[in-house]
Amino acid sequence: MKTLAPPTPITRPTKPPQNYLTEGGTTLKSWLLTTDHKRIGLLYLYSILFYFAIAAVAAALIRIELITPPGDMVTSQTYNKLFTIHGVLMVWFFLIPSIPAVLGNFVIPMMIGARDVAFPKLNLLSWYLFNAGGLLALYAIIFGGVDTGWTFYTPYSSAYSNTHVVAMAAGVFIAGFGSILTGLNFIITVHKMRAPGMTWFRLPLFIWSLYATSVILVLATPVLAMTLALMALERIWGLGVFDPALGGDPVLFQHLFWFYSHPAVYIMILPGMGVISETITCFSRKPIFGYYFVAFASVAIAILGFLVWGHHMFVSSQSVYAGFVFSILSFLVAVPSAIKVFNWTMTLHRGSISLETPMLYALGFIGLFTLGGLTGLFLAALAVDVHVTDTYFVIAHFHYIMVGGMVTAFMGGLHYWWPKISGRMYPEKLGQLAALVTYIGFNLTFFPQFIMGYLGMPRRYHAYAPEFQIYHVLSTAGASILGAGYLLPLIYFIWSLKHGKKAPSNPWNATGLEWQTPSPPPKHNFEEIPVVTRPPYQYSPQLGEAMEHG
Amino acid sequence: MGDAHTALQEQFDDLEQQKEASTLGMWTFLATEVLFFGGLFMSYITYRSFYPREFSAAGQHTIILYGTLNTAILLTSSLTAALSVHAAQENRTNWLFRYLIMTVFLGCCFLGVKAVEYHDDIQEQLIPGPHFRAGLPAQGQIFWFLYWAMTGLHALHVLAGVGLLSVIALLAARRKFSDRYHHPVEISALYWHFVDIVWIFLYPLFYLIDRYH
């Protein structure tokens, strides 16, 4: 048994109780040198919002260009740079750190009843690596941009592109080590820092999903780093392992790239699933349906996710037999994903549902993720994939997962934990409105892309045939609504910092340990490390049923 | 004892928990490293199977004497690293320091031999590119590209290990470690063994594989 030093009671009746925002100083230096996981989570929040803003502007310019069929606003070269900025920043500098590095950093130690992550200094180093990478990427963007797309395919990237490929790749490489160290930190934290009584099967499902995510971060990211290094080396050296002139094989680059980038897709959805498990249970006042299934589905997704990268390469000259295998394995990933969706739905069944903002986002997530997942099955089918490869169908599919899934879950999670983070409540009605606006705007943006993709609209073109215009106009209209849906929370979150109602320690009557400490929490999270005696999500459905039957 | 107490970081309950976390942390980091090198090994495997004859011809030009010498040096250094952990466990702090210094010294020897070897390789025009050694097939350049990339990355790891172990040796000289508190020694040695093991794979791939006839 671990013995704990009894907390020294501090009584200062005149001062308000200290929390992590005030304890240790409020200077810029105290933030930049902090090792507190909660402050680091907030540092990540500011950083990713900054990169998100740039990437969103790129997306807006893309959508404006596409209102009319001819390429009349930007040149094709500029257009290439715009979608590269959008892709690189959104994937590596927004989505991958979004839930893990912001919400994960903030709540993981509290959820498991720890004072901090296992390696707080390493945690801060991750943030600096992430931003060093971000600055290099910004350098590449400002001094001319990159036109390879976020995939950096050779030999275009290594031999032909006249843009700042090496700087951009170096940015991703360095930020990648930030991700690796974050993943490492989370793995060790979950293994070694749990409070007494917090067994593996008493862990909230958010922890399971972030644990699975961390395993992917640690095992997949180094392969991307090496692949980009080889590509950059080839570009600098003038020849290399992917160079066809020497007998090198550009398809090997694709294999190595997707060996990382497919698992990375699960880095961009598993944490979202974790948030949904938290909010669905809380706002339907029921324990999760099939805890073990949901927990192990995360692990299964992480493992299977490593074995399906070839489905990005069905038309790349990869062997047909490899295609068969990758196709079957890709279908298999749908099983654990569907288990989660069914279990969330069963959790809702006969629950005492209330539609606060986090719940609206959670319900939106289930619908959008299901649509994104099902269209993923179309793409896993060899013959259909040949038809829709490199069309807007693919674009729509992965935006349903990454924006409809991950960003929706991120917004849900941010609203859910906002009282804990800031100590203030956000305005509920506006929150619900923003969730609805986002949902409508998102569908209007991306559903038309399924249709035009299926009809043959190729991705990455700035000029297109006139018959696709109606879909592009709808999509651009949707994007403006979506933009408003994202701007609204930004405004009222900032408003709430000063004017929001003071949040109690547990505004949702939720069960997690993070709600047993004041909002905002003290620097070391708990006055006394809690002892856990029960499984998570001990909500009372009977109470809900009783209310339902009057 | 005083040192052991101050070594406890505030997020941990006790030294045991801190030790377990650090050890698992290093193993996880090594898993990352395996995958990092994995991209290179995958490239090597792919092209060796594509171009076995060309790789064989190119492979005749690595300098087996240096490779073998370095293998011996690195294996010996792993022994001294293991002995340093043993010395720490038995609280023989003088020997802990001596073994660490020996390990650092052998690491430097490895890098010295490697530098001489690189020099000779350059003399022999074994850098892929326009001035690549005449008479070797084009695909041989991929072999030599991988040679430079893989042994170069490994040498960087040796350099990092030498730096790490130097710091540990410095701390050992200041009597920071004892039989109760020495996990920094253990996890540094773990890293050193990893560097050694990578070389155990590089040595046959670049020096031995086509030398049997």
The overall average pLDDT of chain A, rounded, is: 93
In CATH, what is the homologous superfamily of chain A?
Answer: Cytochrome c oxidase-like, subunit I domain
**How many helix segments of chain B?**
7
How much helicity do the residues of chain B have? over 70%
**CATH fold group of chain B:** Four Helix Bundle (Hemerythrin (Met), subunit A)
Q: State the CATH architecture of chain B.
A: Up-down Bundle
How far the N terminus sits from the C terminus of chain B, by CA atoms, comes to 60 Å
Largest sheet of chain B: none
What is the CATH C level class of chain B, in words?
A: Mainly Alpha
Strand coverage percent of chain B: under 5%
Question: How large a portion of the residues of chain A is in β-strands, by DSSP E?
Answer: under 5%
- Please estimate the helix content of chain A: 55-70%
* CATH architecture level-2 label of chain A: Up-down Bundle
Order of helices and strands of chain B: HHHHHHH
How far the N terminus sits from the C terminus of chain A, by CA atoms, comes to: 47 Å
- Note the main sheet of chain A: none
Rounded to the nearest angstrom, the radius of gyration of chain B is 20 Å
Core attributes:
heterodimer; A: 550 residues; mainly alpha; Cytochrome C Oxidase, Chain A; 17 helices; B: 213 residues; Four Helix Bundle (Hemerythrin (Met), subunit A); 78% helix
What does this structure look like?
The complex is a heterodimer of chains A (about 550) and B (about 210). With about 550 residues, chain A is an all-alpha fold. Chain A has one domain: Cytochrome C Oxidase, Chain A (Up-down Bundle). Chain A contains 17 helices and no strands. The longest helix of chain A is centred in the N-terminal third of the chain and has 36 residues, at about 75-110. Chain B is mainly alpha-helical and about 210 residues long. Chain B has one domain: Cytochrome c oxidase, subunit III, four-helix bundle (Four Helix Bundle (Hemerythrin (Met), subunit A)). Chain B has helices at about 1-5, 15-50, 50-60, 65-90, 95-125, 140-175, 185-210. In chain B, helix 2 (about 15-50) packs parallel to helix 7, helix 3 crosses helix 6 (about 140-175) and helix 4 (about 65-90) packs antiparallel against helix 7 (about 185-210). Chains A and B meet through helix 6, helix 7 and helix 8 of A and helix 2 and helix 6 of B.
